[in-house]
Amino acid sequence: MALSKRELELTAALLRHAADTFANKSCNDFDLPEQWTDSECRQLAAAIEESVDCEAFVELGTRIVNDAVAMDYLANRIREEMGE
Questions:
Q1: What's this model's pTM, rounded to 2 decimal places?
Q2: What DSSP character marks residue 20?
Q3: Structural contact between residues 2 and 61, judged by C-beta atoms closer than 8 angstroms
């Protein structure tokens, strides 16, 4: 069953809140899943960087992204999917 519009709104709001909270902690590293290919990691990073105008990877060539930036990106994507 697909998420309802209200569930999507709540998810986006919670991700935005979490992104703000996580941005203030000392370490913002998040390891992407091991089963993702390097290409999938690069595609996600490119999408994040285009969407939020910020570098996604903590270090180029790694599988580690900035958690706050990734959450902000996902919140934006959910809102886009909802037509906002």
A1: 0.78
A2: H
A3: no
